[in-house]
Design a protein that fits this description.
The chain is α+β, with helices and mostly antiparallel strands. 52% of the residues lie in helices and 11% in strands.
């Protein structure tokens, strides 16, 4: 009996050692290495759905829900920015509005969703407003919004990521998400950035100094 228990203990120790070695190897991988393995879309979407469900049970309305998702997105955005700057050796931190928007529209979107956003536009009504449009946001593919919450935009999580990265680039802005479905693109999402007054004044000074 004692011999059997000893054998079981040795097997458990051997298993723990293998798991420890595997974990150590993962932690020792360089951050700058281009990883080819990706998180599955279904897992990503499931995680977002659970975040929405968790948050929904702790807020009073749709506005509060979007604000909380935006806050969660901001926490992720800081880490996405740091990781992107570490891995992408050909880019630098942009502090001009247009260059920063192109960086988000292309590099950041490819890092997050494996593709660039579909369009980047400037508002025709306000010079301090820009729009990033994604016709098919990958992580919203399996998110279904009930009719009684038609005004809710689950893309608020994405807007939080964008807001955080804009702040990291010294271009603070208020960023909101808007569901704008069209034929063929039922989850089309527009990320609206409204930059702070100080940012636009700085841009004018820099333009005048050229």
């Amino acid at each position: 009996m004692a011999s059997s228990q000893q054998q079981q203990t040795q097997n458990m120790l051997r298993l723990d050692t293998k798991q420890t070695k595997r974990s150590t190897m993962l932690l020792e991988q360089p951050v700058t290495r281009q990883r080819r393995d990706k998180v599955s879309l279904s897992a990503f979407a499931f995680l977002l759905a659970e975040m929405i469900r968790y948050t929904q049970n702790r807020v009073l309305g749709i506005q509060d829900l979007e604000a909380k998702l935006n806050e969660l997105g901001q926490r992720v955005g800081v880490r996405v920015f740091e990781l992107t700057m570490s891995r992408e050796k050909t880019v630098r931190r942009e502090t001009r509005v247009l260059q920063m928007l192109v960086f988000i529209n292309s590099v950041v979107w490819r890092t997050l969703f494996d593709k660039s956003a579909d369009s980047l536009e400037r508002s025709t009504e306000s010079e301090d407003e820009y729009m990033i449009t994604d016709n098919e946001p990958a992580i919203l593919k399996y998110i279904s919004v009930p009719k009684e919450m038609a005004s809710f935009s689950p893309g608020a999580f994405i807007s939080g990521i964008v807001e955080s990265i804009a702040a990291c680039c010294q271009c603070p802005a208020r960023v909101t998400s808007h569901a704008v479905p069209v034929d063929g693109f039922p989850v089309r999402t527009v990320i609206l950035l409204k930059f702070d007054k100080e940012v636009m004044e700085r841009e004018k000074r820099l333009e005048a100094g050229k």
